[in-house]
């Protein structure tokens, strides 16, 4: 098989288009014949063709590595298979070629004048080869420290204590307490409660009533369990039923506590939002937003803007701003044109981040009805959007990319590609040093956000044509049957990450 330079140009142009680098793609477009190829062959090239092509090159290098000089295949052991499957990457493939065919070092009249690397290039090239195993490009495999039964949802407590809540088979709520012991996680206690026997939670006939949302209060003393039938059950950390809030008539999609623990904002699939008093269980405000021409969900998230204001999805992609005690919105944010997929308020800069099915992210400043930033680049649904600091946000998408955006420069500043595998969820650690993503193939990747922010600061936060690559801290793949990742949850100290799968047991991994 061979490939011409024009064909390679077209693959690179397609990659730039898919990655949201329009300026780079335009520059390449002006100097090549890529538009002719697009017109003739574009429909035959799927998304991610260049990445797929490179992967096939890696597989060729893999096969070459496994065959001895005499043509016999290297004997494979279980240890070899684990190391081989986890650690082989593009960097290692290039390293193999570099060892076979070392680079020709520019010396003498071919060396750049004043280049300090030229004088000791051979020495540094030789010395760097044995250090490859310690290079940060080698991704480490994260260690699984605990496993619990299949759960509809699992969430770490917001307390400093290691308490993991999960809802298991037959609506069994389990509260497990752990402790650190010699680099391992030991379960010290487990409290069990049968939600199915609680009036209003139990079902008749063959109706199902699963838990759709688990959300701890900021102080970690109460746990809200949103149900499929619309009920909201409040449970204490010491395993006691506190209240059952009944008003929703359909499955609850989102539950958010106010920062002072006094109110809960809940939202269901019929676009009904309710404000609850957590002490009395009283519904203080009810908002029913319906579009007579459509039955679709307006959004899947809600958010508090302090202790007395909140936002909920509105019609046609709008965001409605309400105050406690007011039945009419005090503001309406227009810009998005489709279902809202995420909302997050930054308490430090007082700005709201939103994401939508219209494939954009927007930043809203306090006191303004117009977005101050609008980020384009994702080609499929945005599945997560969060603030990294007061100036940068991170997003994930079904298009298999993780992107970091700068509000100051209104541009993308960092990017990670995951071979086109859809990313279903993402979660930033409480200390904001790491970001985890869960993919459709069941793999979890953790990125080193603190290192990325250091690199951006070293670069003076400048926006170059090529975004920085997001450093990877490590990854994890469950050894059980394939299933996709539902949710991710960090403990309050950012040491452990729970991974909720669609069909298999919940894994807890160490991220230190």
UniProtKB/TrEMBL annotation:
PROSITE patterns: LISH, WD_REPEATS_2, WD_REPEATS_REGION. GO terms for biological process: regulation of transcription by RNA polymerase II. It is found in: Nucleus. Residues 195-259 form the Anaphase-promoting complex subunit 4-like WD40 domain. WD repeats lie at residues 204-239, 245-286, 333-364, 375-415. Keywords: Nucleus, Repeat, WD repeat. GO terms for molecular function: transcription corepressor activity. InterPro entries: Apc4-like_WD40_dom, Ebi-like, LisH, WD40/YVTN_repeat-like_dom_sf, WD40_repeat_dom_sf, WD40_rpt. The keyword Nucleus applies. It holds the Pfam family WD40. One of its GO terms (cellular component) is Set3 complex. PANTHER family: F-BOX-LIKE_WD REPEAT-CONTAINING PROTEIN EBI (PTHR22846:SF2), WD40 REPEAT PROTEIN (PTHR22846). This is LAMI_0E09736g1_1. It comes from Lachancea mirantina.
């Amino acid at each position: 098989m061979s490939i011409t330079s024009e064909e390679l140009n077209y693959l690179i142009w397609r990659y730039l288009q898919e990655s949201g680098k329009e300026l780079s793609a335009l520059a390449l477009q002006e100097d090549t014949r890529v538009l002719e190829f697009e017109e003739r062959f574009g429909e035959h090239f799927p998304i991610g063709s260049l990445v797929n092509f490179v992967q096939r090159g890696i597989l060729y290098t893999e096969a070459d590595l496994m065959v001895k000089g005499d043509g016999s295949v290297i004997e494979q052991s279980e240890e070899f298979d684990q190391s081989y499957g986890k650690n082989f990457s593009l960097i290692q493939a290039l390293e193999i070629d570099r060892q076979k065919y070392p680079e020709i070092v520019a010396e003498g009249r071919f060396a750049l004048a004043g280049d300090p690397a030229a004088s000791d290039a051979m020495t540094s090239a030789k010395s760097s080869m044995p250090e490859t195993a310690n290079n940060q490009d080698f991704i480490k495999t994260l260690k699984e420290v605990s496993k619990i039964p299949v759960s509809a949802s699992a969430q770490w407590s917001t307390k400093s204590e290691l308490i993991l809540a999960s809802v298991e088979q037959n609506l069994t709520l389990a509260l497990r307490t752990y402790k650190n012991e010699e680099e391992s996680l030991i379960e010290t206690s487990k409290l069990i409660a049968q939600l199915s026997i609680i009036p209003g939670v139990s079902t008749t006939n063959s109706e199902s009533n699963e838990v759709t949302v688990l959300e701890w209060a900021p102080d970690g003393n109460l746990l809200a369990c949103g149900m499929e039938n619309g009920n909201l059950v409040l449970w204490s950390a010491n395993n006691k039923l506190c209240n059952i809030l009944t008003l929703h008539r359909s499955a609850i999609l989102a539950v958010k506590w106010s920062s002072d623990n006094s109110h809960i904002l809940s939202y269901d699939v019929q676009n009904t939002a309710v404000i609850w008093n957590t002490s009395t269980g009283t519904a203080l405000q009810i908002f029913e937003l319906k579009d007579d021409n459509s039955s679709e969900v307006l959004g899947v998230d809600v958010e508090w803007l302090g202790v007395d204001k909140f936002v909920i999805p509105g019609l046609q992609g709008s965001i409605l701003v309400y105050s406690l005690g007011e039945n009419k919105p005090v503001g309406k944010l227009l810009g998005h044109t489709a279902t809202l997929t995420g909302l997050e308020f930054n308490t430090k800069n007082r700005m709201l981040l939103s994401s939508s099915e219209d494939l954009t992210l927007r930043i809203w400043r306090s006191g303004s009805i117009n977005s101050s930033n609008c980020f384009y680049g994702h080609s499929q649904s945005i599945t997560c959007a969060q603030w990294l600091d007061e100036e940068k946000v991170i997003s994930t998408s079904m298009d298999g990319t993780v992107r970091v955006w700068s509000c100051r420069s209104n541009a993308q500043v960092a990017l990670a590609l995951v071979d086109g595998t859809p990313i279903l969820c993402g979660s930033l650690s409480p200390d904001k040093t790491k970001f985890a993503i869960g993919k459709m193939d069941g793999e979890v990747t953790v990125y080193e956000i603190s290192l990325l922010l250091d690199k951006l600061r070293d670069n003076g936060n400048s926006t170059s044509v090529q975004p920085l690559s997001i450093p990877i801290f490590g990854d994890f793949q469950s050894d059980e049957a394939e299933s996709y990742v539902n949710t991710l949850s960090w403990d309050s100290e950012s040491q452990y990450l729970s991974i909720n799968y669609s069909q298999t047991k919940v894994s807890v991994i160490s991220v230190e």
